[in-house]
């Protein structure tokens, strides 16, 4: 009985030492729980690997990348409508959000179809790698669908392209 107790105590001590020693090793890998959490509940759909620009296949792919210390970039266009600043009687639409972008390069939103194909409707430099702004696209013009393009902030910046959005103006 004493021998069994000695084996159990030795095993328990070995397990405790392993956990204590592994803690700093796991932390040294640079896990990024904020990026991993951002991937959940559909958050992966507009995220890209910052290092390569590759879109994530699913939430698990995105979460795993963040948990292993990888950074992610986000680029999303939405189609809310709101009063235009230049003409309070008109309605504008479009907003862009992004994070983990290369702060030294320009992002742009452009028409990706129809007879205005390629027309740039907004562009700017991300502030600190982030962007969040209304695009001021008037409803009375055929400027749909829109897409946005930007560069990731990885070691080798890569182009990332948002999913297209259509005007909510009908």
Description:
The protein is α+β, with helices and mostly antiparallel strands and 170 residues long. It folds into 2 domains: 1-30; 72-161. The chain has 3 helices and 8 strands. The protein has a 4-stranded antiparallel sheet with strand order 1-2-3-6. A 4-stranded antiparallel sheet has the order 5-4-7-8, with no helix packed on it.
Q: What tags apply to this protein structure?
A:
single chain; 170 residues; alpha+beta; 4-stranded antiparallel sheet; disordered N terminus
Secondary-structure blueprint:
Layout lengths: L1 H27 L4 H6 L8 E3 L9 H9 L4 E12 L7 E9 L7 E5 L8 E5 L6 E8 L7 E6 L7 E3 L9
Antiparallel strand pairs: 1-2, 2-3, 3-6, 4-5, 4-7, 7-8
Kindly summarize this structure in a few lines:
The protein has three helices and eight strands, in the order ααβαβββββββ.
Q: What does the largest sheet look like?
A: 4 strands, antiparallel
Rg, rounded, reads 23 Å
How much of the sequence is in beta strands?
25-35%
Helices and strands, in N-to-C order?
A: HHEHEEEEEEE
Could you say which overall geometry the principal axes of the C-alpha atoms support? elongated
Question: Structural class from helices and strands?
Answer: alpha+beta
Termini distance? 80 Å
Instruction: Kindly state the percentage of residues in helix.
Output: 10-25%
**Residue ranges: pLDDT <50 for 5 or more in a row?**
1-29
Count of DSSP-assigned helices? 3
- The whole-number mean of residue pLDDT values reads 80
- Order of strands across the main sheet: 1-2-3-6
Number of strands: 8
Count the domains: 2
């Amino acid at each position: 009985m004493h021998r069994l107790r000695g084996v159990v105590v030795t095993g328990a001590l070995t397990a405790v030492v392993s956990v204590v020693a592994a803690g700093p090793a796991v932390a040294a890998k640079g896990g990024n729980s904020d990026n991993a959490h951002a991937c959940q509940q559909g958050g992966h759909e507009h995220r890209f690997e910052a290092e390569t620009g590759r879109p994530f296949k699913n939430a698990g792919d995105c979460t795993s990348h963040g948990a292993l210390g990888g950074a992610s970039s986000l680029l999303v266009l939405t189609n809310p409508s709101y009063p235009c600043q230049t003409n309070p009687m008109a309605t504008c639409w479009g907003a862009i959000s992004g994070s983990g972008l290369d702060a030294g390069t320009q992002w742009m939103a452009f028409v990706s179809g129809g007879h205005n194909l390629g027309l740039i409707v907004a562009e700017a430099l991300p502030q600190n790698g982030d962007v969040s702004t209304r695009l001021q696209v008037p409803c009375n013009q055929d400027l749909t669908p829109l897409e946005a393009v930007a560069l990731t902030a990885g070691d080798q910046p890569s182009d990332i392209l948002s999913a297209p959005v259509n005007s909510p103006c009908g």
